[in-house]
């Protein structure tokens, strides 16, 4: 496998010669009912954002002005969010953001058959961008990263592919795709969830694990995709098919996330989270309420762009013993009213209502949740638009919780409106 690498244009950032191809078609089934109506990248996060905003913001802040988002599973919520929040790209400035739903463009019987196939089915669209480099991104992780640094390494090393990698303790690496690398950082083997992960040169206690982020020269990737599409034995997936082939016959280089992660003075270590389970989703949101959170959302130099609703400020009312509107170590978004309710270590998204004598402790309440009077909620995730009945108690009796709601392995209770409706019908 040989390829003549293009030389970057002089005096230009590599990001200006690149496009971001965001893979956002995954269901995220481990999030259970949270993805009944939306794809995982469209799930809310951090009070005002959606998960996909992190990959898109990283690309935009890195200087990439050409992006495509491949969607498939229950994409309406995601498409609507992107149309509302990311419509500021201007074609006359050579800026583009295309949404690419699986639409049987290549074959009337085929949707996207894998991550590589999602790009392959849109080769003609990528060609129209006239770019030298393609940054392939997963749309469902929480992190801040400057892709320009990864692009520079890709060009300087003459790699066929550069793979974004996390440094993970060896005992935890079995849950990932793991890279074995030599002293120069070239990948010598790609192992999917190995029982005995290889350590890193000079650091045997840690392993390099794939982030699902890849940088390619476009002409090289184009030829590879065409060849893969014609292979009936391929699953048409980057991690299963294309990357192992390049490792075997070409030059794959590992890029350490620690070298390009974006940190402020408050962030002491590289931050990356897969919020793909109820427990992980709850924990990552609750972590934001810490005195010094591991992820700084207040960094104006690297903003997380999103669709911002025009709403009034949050309001706190009532000031009497037992009925005081208050929030401690919590994030409360716009258009929320904390009315004689006690909120602790919780995150309330836009439009929340917490009525008198209710209490929230370690609660993640998605947009437009209404908490009835005297309800007591602990360690739970509440889906968008849920109306919690008065005096409901959640998080204190596991057996009672499991009768009506979903309780995770970590003891987090997920509450949706259909669950409450079933409960009300059975108690009626």
TrEMBL record:
InterPro entries: ADP-Glc_PPase, ADP_Glu_pyroP_CS, GlgC_bac, GlmU/GlgC-like_hexapep, NTP_transferase_dom, Nucleotide-diphossugar_trans, Trimer_LpxA-like_sf
The protein's assembly and partners: Homotetramer.
Upper classification of the organism: Bacteria, Pseudomonadati, Pseudomonadota, Alphaproteobacteria, Rhodobacterales
Domain Nucleotidyl transferase intervals: 20-289
Pathway: Glycan biosynthesis; glycogen biosynthesis
Binding site for alpha-D-glucose 1-phosphate: 112, 177, 192-193, 210
Site (Could play a key role in the communication between the regulatory and the substrate sites) residue list: 72, 111
EC number: 2.7.7.27
Reaction equation(s) it catalyzes: alpha-D-glucose 1-phosphate + ATP + H(+) = ADP-alpha-D-glucose + diphosphate
EC top class named in words: transferase
One GO term of the biological process aspect: glycogen biosynthetic process
Gene3D superfamilies from the UniProt entry: Hexapeptide repeat proteins, Spore Coat Polysaccharide Biosynthesis Protein SpsA, Chain A
Coiled coil (residue ranges): none
Domain (Glucose-1-phosphate adenylyltransferase/Bifunctional protein GlmU-like C-terminal hexapeptide) ranges: 312-415
Protein name, UniProt field: Glucose-1-phosphate adenylyltransferase
Any Pfam family: NTP_transferase
Family according to the record: Belongs to the bacterial/plant glucose-1-phosphate adenylyltransferase family.
Cited HAMAP family: GlgC
PROSITE patterns tied to this protein: ADP_GLC_PYROPHOSPH_1 (PS00808), ADP_GLC_PYROPHOSPH_2 (PS00809)
Function (record text): Involved in the biosynthesis of ADP-glucose, a building block required for the elongation reactions to produce glycogen. Catalyzes the reaction between ATP and alpha-D-glucose 1-phosphate (G1P) to produce pyrophosphate and ADP-Glc.
Signal sequence region: none
Alphabetically ordered keywords of this record: ATP-binding, Carbohydrate metabolism, Glycogen biosynthesis, Glycogen metabolism, Nucleotide-binding, Nucleotidyltransferase, Transferase
Gene Ontology MF: a single term: ATP binding
Domain of life: Bacteria
């Amino acid at each position: 496998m040989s390829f003549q690498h293009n030389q970057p244009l002089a005096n230009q950032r590599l990001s200006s010669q690149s496009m971001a191809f965001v893979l956002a078609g995954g269901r995220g089934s481990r999030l259970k009912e949270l993805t009944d109506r939306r794809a995982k990248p469209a799930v809310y996060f951090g009070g005002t954002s959606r998960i996909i905003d992190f990959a898109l913001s990283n690309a935009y802040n890195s200087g990439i002005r050409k992006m495509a988002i491949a969607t498939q599973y229950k994409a309406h919520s995601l498409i609507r969010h992107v149309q509302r929040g990311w419509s500021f790209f201007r074609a006359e400035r050579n800026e583009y953001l295309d949404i690419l739903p699986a639409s049987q463009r290549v074959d009337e019987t085929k949707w996207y058959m894998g991550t590589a196939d999602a790009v392959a089915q849109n080769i003609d669209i990528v060609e129209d961008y006239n770019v030298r480099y393609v940054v392939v991104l997963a749309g469902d992780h929480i992190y801040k990263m400057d892709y320009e640094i990864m692009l520079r390494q890709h060009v300087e090393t003459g790699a066929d592919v550069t793979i974004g990698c996390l440094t993970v303790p060896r005992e935890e690496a079995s849950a990932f795709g793991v890279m074995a690398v030599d002293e120069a950082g070239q990948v010598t083997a790609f192992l999917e969830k190995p029982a005995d992960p290889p350590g890193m040169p000079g650091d045997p206690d840690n392993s390099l694990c794939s982030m699902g982020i890849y940088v390619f020269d476009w002409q090289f990737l184009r030829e590879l995709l065409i060849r893969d599409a014609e292979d009936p034995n391929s699953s048409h997936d980057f991690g299963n098919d294309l990357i192992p082939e390049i490792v075997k016959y070409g030059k794959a280089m590992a890029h350490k996330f620690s070298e390009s992660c974006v940190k402020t003075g408050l962030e002491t270590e590289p931050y990356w989270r897969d919020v793909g389970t109820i427990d992980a989703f709850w924990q990552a949101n609750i972590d934001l309420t810490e005195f010094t959170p591991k992820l700084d959302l207040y960094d104006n130099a690297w903003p997380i762009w999103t669709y911002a609703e025009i709403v009034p400020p949050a309001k706190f009312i009532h000031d009497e013993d037992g009925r005081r509107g208050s929030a401690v170590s919590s994030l409360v978004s716009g258009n929320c009213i904390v009315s004689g309710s006690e909120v602790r270590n919780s995150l309330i998204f836009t439009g929340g209502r917490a009525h008198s004598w209710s209490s929230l402790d370690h609660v993640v309440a998605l947009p437009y949740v209404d908490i009835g009077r005297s309800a007591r909620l602990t360690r739970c995730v509440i889906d968008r638009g849920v109306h919690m009945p008065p005096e409901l108690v959640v998080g204190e009796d596991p057996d009672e919780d499991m009768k009506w709601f979903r309780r995770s392995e970590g003891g987090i209770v997920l509450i949706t409106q259909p669950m409450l409706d079933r409960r009300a019908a059975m108690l009626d």
